Task: inverse folding
């Protein structure tokens, strides 16, 4: 026997009772996210905006005021300083310098010179204007292509309703992630794009598991109303959904707390994504099948051809 | 699904042993691995610069400068070709994009002009529009020239980096006009960037006779240029010193064959150089004709020094004495030895991680992976009991295989890559969870243990494939379109997905089935 009965078995939760509530909630949050994105914008990292990032370590607790004075004295435009993980570590962000890549380089050396040899440079990064615009392009391409490819796969494996449902759920997750990054002012960089794509992968993964079960139950219980089929399928897969989400969250939370300062934003994005992705598979992707009039007749003629359902 | 053919069991065993063998070197220090014979696995995972510490410099070569230079030369040759007797009358000879153009004045000279230009521009495109002729680079020619310039620039960069003692550095071509320089272990790139940024074109010039009384407000004679000194020398009044240097290049750095830092008789650092025979002859002639006159040694339009020629230098070698320190003499000798860059280079992206931060990241990654592994193992054991333990064995094997694959493929492990591993630890159990939940359900539906296990694996199989393939597609595209650290993440994620599917479908199944057939339990402990 299992030691602890961690996950409920044989639940009969009426998920579909909440579908309207969930739809309203998600719609509101998505609109909020889009609004935040449009009016507050994202805190783009140097990957996408260009500019300079220098991480230093001082021998004693950093005197932020003095450091700020020193760097501001160089007149390099907007400069941000923040403590990074511990009192001796400081992250310095300098906005993109007008002009070409050479100007960035000159500014980097100026900052290093001004800070002198009393600090150690843990990280020095600069991205010129040309590279940053290429990275934006590559990032957008990667996200769009990945979403498109995953969708094609679902479409190929299931009916079109499933594809559309998965797409909307996916868009929901991506929008919500962008929203939370905008709301909290978290840095949006290349790793964030990686996080978003992973979230998309995770969310699709979750959705596929539920959809698989919906398809199977549609074949098994031909007389059952679609709403009940969906409720049944969600309950059938609930323990799996919870278990996998929990183990993934455990791993990600540990990464967030112990993985070091550099990937904190990345881990946060993924944690958020797992939560939103799990929610959207249950409350967005699956109920959408009802609205799209998924007919069981679609499967009737397939039944003999496919043999044992998965 | 309950009958597993023997070859599958052997395959799993072989892969497991290979996985252990190829991941084991990561636990052994590199120094010890040196004593391993070649046939034993001896490769560590390849750590990215963000973990090892080091510099990543993306450099753009301004190749259009090489093209422009080629066109200027072409213009010059075209002028002399047309002026060769019997000369051809033309006007408006000029450089146009990717070529030169001119207008012939007399119609009967057109064909002669065409043949002379064609001879001049071997393989170039010659177009005629009435009396207007355009000689231009074909796209292939243009590409060849650019490739040649980039290759040459890379060669110079490589020589300069090697000369700086950075032996582990890699210099790669990236795209059409870029060079990627990666230098492990270096935390401060200030001097490296300085070395790479210099064109290092050295030229020797005679000086204007009035150089002593020059006032910067005065106009210069034709053929004379005003150059600053390389170390911004000041005179006694604190004014910067300028040199009046004749434009004509007497000898150029292209004719140098060697250059070394050394010391003069007063033990001051100087740079010695040696010319090839052509350079030596020219240098000999110039110095013989200009004894007791000053002579400027110019680097990238700045005067290094302007000594007075004491006697003819006929042996083809000499010394440059400026205000050198040992370091700057070393640097200059290296630059001269490595040759001049054919085109200007600009660093357009830098990512340098100091060794301290890299080590901290590795440490944090190790701790996070270990804690995550322990937490997931405990959780799975609590959730599934003995079945959970079997899934845990598969999870451990999964990590071993992942480490082995990374070591064998020599894929670069980056910090986001470590994040990918931690994520894999969390997600790898998914396939097992799918199967176990299914078996549990089948049992509740009244099946016997064996039949429940059989149906569980059968039914979960396509779900596992569907679910993992979608994530795999995302990882694949991340790898294809991502850059740098993102690719590192994609690699571990993709490999992790494959190993987790393998361990869930094959490894756990063998364990479950073996246990089932041995114990023949009445009910499954699920």
Result:
């Amino acid at each position: 026997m299992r030691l602890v009965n961690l996950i409920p078995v044989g639940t009969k939760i009426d998920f579909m009772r909440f579908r309207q509530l969930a739809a309203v909630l998600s719609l509101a949050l998505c609109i909020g996210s889009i609004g935040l994105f449009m009016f507050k914008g994202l805190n783009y990292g140097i990957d996408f905006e260009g500019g300079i990032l220098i991480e230093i370590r001082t021998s004693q607790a950093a005197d932020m005021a003095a450091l700020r004075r020193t760097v501001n004295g160089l007149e390099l435009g907007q400069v941000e300083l923040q403590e990074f993980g511990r009192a001796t570590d400081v992250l310095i962000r300098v906005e993109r310098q007008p002009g070409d890549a050479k100007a960035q380089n000159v500014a980097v050396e100026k900052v290093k010179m001004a800070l002198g040899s009393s600090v150690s440079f843990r990280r020095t990064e600069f991205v010129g204007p040309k590279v940053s615009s290429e990275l934006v392009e590559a990032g957008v391409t990667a996200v769009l292509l990945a979403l498109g490819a995953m969708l094609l796969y679902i479409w190929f494996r299931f009916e079109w309703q499933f594809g559309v449902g998965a797409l909307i759920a996916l868009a929901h997750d991506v929008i919500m992630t962008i929203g939370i990054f905008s709301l909290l002012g978290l840095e949006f960089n290349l790793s964030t794009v990686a996080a978003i794509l992973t979230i998309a992968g995770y969310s699709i993964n979750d959705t596929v598991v539920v959809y698989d079960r919906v398809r199977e139950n549609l074949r098994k219980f031909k007389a059952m109303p679609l709403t009940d089929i969906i409720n049944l399928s969600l309950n059938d897969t609930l323990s799996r959904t919870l278990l996998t989400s929990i183990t993934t969250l455990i791993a990600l939370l540990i990464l967030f707390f112990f993985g070091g300062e550099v990937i904190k934003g990345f881990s946060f994005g993924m944690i958020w994504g797992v939560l939103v992705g799990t929610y959207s598979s249950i409350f967005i992707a699956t109920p959408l099948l009802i609205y799209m009039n998924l007919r069981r007749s679609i499967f009737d003629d397939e039944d003999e051809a496919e043999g044992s359902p998965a | 699904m309950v009958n597993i053919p023997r070859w599958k069991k052997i395959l799993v065993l072989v892969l497991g042993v290979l996985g252990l063998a190829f991941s084991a070197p990561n636990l052994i220090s590199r120094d010890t691995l040196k004593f391993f014979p070649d046939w034993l696995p001896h490769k560590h995972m390849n750590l990215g610069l963000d973990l090892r510490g080091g510099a990543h410099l993306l450099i753009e070569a301004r190749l259009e400068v090489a093209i422009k230079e080629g066109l200027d030369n072409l213009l010059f040759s075209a002028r002399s070709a047309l002026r060769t007797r019997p000369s051809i009358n033309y006007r408006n000879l000029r450089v146009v994009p990717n070529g030169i153009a001119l207008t012939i004045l007399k119609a009967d000279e057109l064909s002669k002009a065409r043949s002379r230009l064609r001879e001049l521009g071997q393989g170039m495109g010659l177009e005629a529009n009435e009396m207007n002729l355009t000689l231009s680079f074909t796209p292939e020619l243009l590409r060849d020239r650019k490739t040649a310039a980039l290759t040459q620039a890379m060669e110079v960069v490589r020589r300069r980096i090697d000369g700086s003692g950075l032996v582990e550095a890699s210099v790669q071509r990236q795209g059409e006009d870029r060079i990627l320089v990666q230098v492990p272990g270096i935390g401060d790139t200030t001097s490296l960037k300085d070395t790479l940024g210099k064109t290092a074109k050295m030229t020797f010039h005679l000086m204007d006779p009035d150089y002593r009384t020059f006032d910067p407000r005065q106009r210069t004679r034709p053929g004379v240029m005003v150059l600053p000194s390389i170390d911004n020398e000041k005179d006694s009044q604190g004014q910067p010193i300028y040199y009046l240097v004749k434009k004509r290049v007497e000898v150029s750095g292209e004719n140098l064959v060697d250059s070394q830092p050394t010391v003069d008789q007063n033990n001051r650092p100087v740079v010695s150089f040696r010319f090839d025979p052509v350079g030596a002859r020219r240098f000999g002639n110039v110095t013989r004709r200009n004894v007791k006159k000053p002579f400027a040694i110019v680097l990238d339009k700045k005067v290094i020094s302007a000594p007075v020629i004491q006697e003819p230098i006929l042996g083809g070698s000499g010394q440059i004495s400026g205000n050198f320190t040992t370091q700057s003499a070393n640097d200059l000798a290296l630059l001269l030895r490595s040759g001049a860059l054919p085109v200007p280079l600009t660093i357009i992206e830098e990512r340098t991680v100091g060794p301290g931060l890299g080590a901290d990241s590795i440490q944090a990654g190790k701790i996070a992976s270990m804690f995550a592994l322990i937490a997931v193992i405990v959780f799975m054991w609590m959730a599934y009991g003995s079945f959970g333990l079997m899934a845990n064995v598969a999870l451990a094997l999964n990590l071993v295989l992942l480490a082995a694959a990374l070591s064998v493929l020599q894929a670069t492990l980056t910090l986001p890559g470590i994040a990918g591993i931690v994520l894999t630890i969390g997600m790898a159990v998914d396939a097992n969870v799918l199967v176990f939940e299914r078996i549990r359900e089948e049992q509740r539906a009244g099946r016997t243990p064996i039949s429940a296990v059989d149906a569980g694996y059968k039914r979960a199989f396509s779900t596992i494939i569907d679910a993992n393939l979608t994530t795999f597609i995302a990882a694949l595209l991340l790898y294809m379109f991502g850059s740098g650290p993102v690719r590192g993440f994609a690699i571990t994620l993709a490999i992790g997905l494959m190993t987790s599917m393998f361990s869930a479908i094959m490894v756990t199944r063998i364990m479950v089935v073996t246990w089932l057939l041995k114990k023949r339990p009445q009910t499954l402990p699920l």
Chain A has two domains: 15-43+132-306, 51-127. Residues 226-258 of chain A form the longest helix (33 residues). Strands of chain A lie at 43-44, 51-57, 79-84, 86-94, 120-127, 187-188.
